[in-house]
Amino acid sequence: MSESTSSTTSQDPNEAASLLRPEELREEALELLSGGLVDDAYQLLTATQGAGESEPETLALVELLRTHLVDDVLMQVGSPSAMPVIEMDAEDLMKFNLPAGAGFLLSRIDGQTQVDDLVALSGMDPFETYHTLGRLLEAGIVGVAE
Amino acid sequence: MGHVIGIDLGTTNSCVSVLENGQPSVIPNAGGYKTTPSMFAITQDGKRLVGHLAKRQAITNAQSTVYASKRLIGRRFDSDEVQRAIDVSPFAIVEGPNEDVRIEVSGKTFTCPELSAFILREMKRVAEEYLGEPVQEAVVTVPAHFNDAQRQCTKDAGKIAGLDVLRILNEPTAAALAYGFSRNEEEKVAIYDLGGGTFDISILEMSDGVVEVIATSGNTFLGGEDFDRRIVDHLLEKFQEQEGIDLRGDAMALQRLKDAAEKAKCDLSAREVAEINLPFIASDDSGPRHLSVEIDRETLEGLVHDIVEGTLKTVEECMQDAGISADQIDQVILVGGQTRTPLVQNRVAEHFGKRPHKGVNPDEVVAIGAAIQGETLVSDDDNLLLLDVTPLSLGIATFGGHFARLIERNTTVPVCKSHIFTTTRDNQSAVKIRVLQGESETAAENDLLGEFVLGGIRPARRGEPEVDVSFDIDANGIVSVSARDTMTGKEQSITVNATGTLSDDEIQQIIEEQELYEVQLKE
């Protein structure tokens, strides 16, 4: 979840990653995971072409990363019954380069809807909802009501 | 004695009320809202949602979210209304075993009474939480123009929800009861009820505790949802003009547009201009796109003008049925959230030549009237006499496909009319009778309530046997039929199986399934 004004890249990581073989990508992902960079590991495997998407080892690792990501979000919010709130005013929010899915999820966050209800009513794949929520939490756009 | 609750089971929103210490209260739900969306959904992980949560995911989970099922309840699958709903509904509407309507949600098929029961159960739960005690008895309202099958199905829904429905009450009549509560004036009243999905108009006479309906009419496919749809279409066009992106296929964007349209419509009842800002509604290679549109009241009025004029045509027809002119109406009562729209208020005022009464809350008045009626029924209060009418003529199909009216529309209920049937052939042992409701002279164009066979007629020459068939419409507007051989005096038991109504076994099975789901949910 990057601010559009601050995101700069000198080299496309996917391009670099695509030079690696699937087993090397998995190793790389495991290394990121052990360093606590779960989302980066997930991105590496799911956004990189030639990551061996259909290989059982890759599928298993992706599933593991998805579980980690959901657990991380639940740990951050405290429990599925926690109440997410938007922490930013509209002007600051507009500085971010949010995808439409994140925009939609933000539109459902009203300070009265619990995390598990948010997952139920988002209409998105439950993992996608948790994942997007996790990124919004990480970016400080969303917090949890006390 | 427990409380009797009044439930306004609306097409788009429902409301529950109760009388406490002689005064009506509208009960807020857990979110603090006094109305609850009449929506039911099943999420991807099998969770059942009712009310606000179901509404907030309605478009992104469109195929598994049921709304406005009230428009389908008690209708035959091949009816024009159902076929029209199939064209516009994202959820699957399928034919049931009795030519009735069923709705498929996440691989499970639900009957319409079952879906209404989800809403009624939610309203029951809201009332129980508020009162701190179990609630068993209720008065449930229906549009005045509901036929027998629709009323019967609503009663079945109450049973499935664990409620003893003491009375099925017409919505405009309920509104009149609430309006007339603690008033003793003699006056003629017009109830103009424009809800989310239906429109009703009723003309009533009120005097000294007597509330008498003179005429009623309506349209089951016209309401506030149509206003919202027009606004959404307008926003879609604006966004396409500004950004070159068509959002029609984007469920998440449509959900946000629908929510925003509804809010803008409400804002425009109080303000001249409403701003609609939906950041990050779409994104493409060039980055996020935001929708920012201003809509003014004049634009909204231009979008919905024809819908409002359509309601006034129905008003005119009802006035003709009642045999009175606009200047004879003493009070005009507006019911339904949509009547907050200034265009509606102004056009109704112009039509009747007087400003509508401002003393009732259009969202709550029907539920309040239902609660008042409930209290009257259990307390045997004889200070209030309610004389309602049947909205549709009741009759039978006759030779040549004609419709013979036995009870004319706008006849006060309860009512009973008898008709003598005889045989057309020598030694004929049975007569088949088709019971219909509607206004067409052609039997096939009316609603078939059911058909039955009068059997066991004694052998005789044609025209000799006489069977006296009695058609009753009770205070709920529900039809029953009984028959008696006039020669032998032998009574015949007849059941008119209305389309879509459920047998006791089916109702019991649905209740058990629901209980099983509740248990699984707790586990």
For the termini of chain A, the CA-CA separation is 24 Å
Question: Main β-sheet of chain B: number of strands, strand sense, barrel status?
Answer: 6 strands, mixed
Structural classification of chain A: mainly alpha
State the total count of DSSP E strands of chain A: 2
How many structural domains can be distinguished in the coordinates of chain B? 3
Detail the poorly predicted runs of chain B.
none
Summarize the largest interface: chains and residue counts. Answer: A-B, 25 and 30 residues
CATH topology of the largest domain in chain B: Nucleotidyltransferase, domain 5
SSE run of chain A: HHHHEHHHHE
Can you give keywords for this protein?
heterodimer, A: mainly alpha, 2 domains, two-stranded antiparallel ribbon, B: 523 residues, alpha+beta, Actin, Chain A, domain 4, Substrate Binding Domain Of DNAk, Chain A, domain 1, 32% helix, globular
How would you explain this protein's 3D organization?
The complex is a heterodimer of chains A (146) and B (523). With 146 residues, chain A is mainly alpha-helical. Chain A folds into two domains: 13-76, no CATH class; 79-144. Helix content of chain A is 58%, strand content 4%. Chain A has a two-stranded antiparallel sheet. The longest helix of chain A is centred in the middle third of the chain and has 22 residues, at 56-77. The two termini of chain A are 24 Å apart. Chain B folds into three domains: 4-222 and 310-388, ATPase, nucleotide binding domain (Nucleotidyltransferase, domain 5, 2-Layer Sandwich); 224-302, ATPase, substrate binding domain, subdomain 4 (Actin, Chain A, domain 4); 390-489, Substrate Binding Domain Of DNAk, Chain A, domain 1 (Sandwich). The relative contact order of chain B is 0.13. Chain B has helices at 52-56, 80-88, 112-131, 148-160, 171-180, 224-243, 251-270, 297-322, 342-352, 365-379, 504-522; strands spanning 4-9, 13-20, 23-26, 36-37, 39-42, 48-50, 65-67, 92-95, 101-105, 108-111, 137-142, 164-170, 187-194, 199-207, 210-219, 273-284, 287-296, 331-335, 385-389, 394-398, 402-407, 412-413, 415-421, 431-437, 447-454, 467-473, 479-485, 491-493. In chain B, helix 8 (297-322) runs parallel beside helix 9 (342-352). Chain B is α+β, with helices and mostly antiparallel strands. The model of chain B has no long low-confidence stretch (mean pLDDT 89). In chain B, strands 1, 2, 3, 4, 11 and 12 form a six-stranded mixed sheet that branches. In chain B, strands 18-13-14-15-19-22 form a six-stranded mixed sheet, sandwiched between helices. A four-stranded antiparallel sheet of chain B has the order 21-20-24-25, with no helix packed on it. Chain A binds chain B through residues 4, 90, 93-94, 97-104, 106-108, 112-113, 117, 120-126, and chain B through 31, 43-45, 47, 49, 53-54, 56-57, 59-61, 250-253, 255-256, 259, 277-283, 287-288, 290.
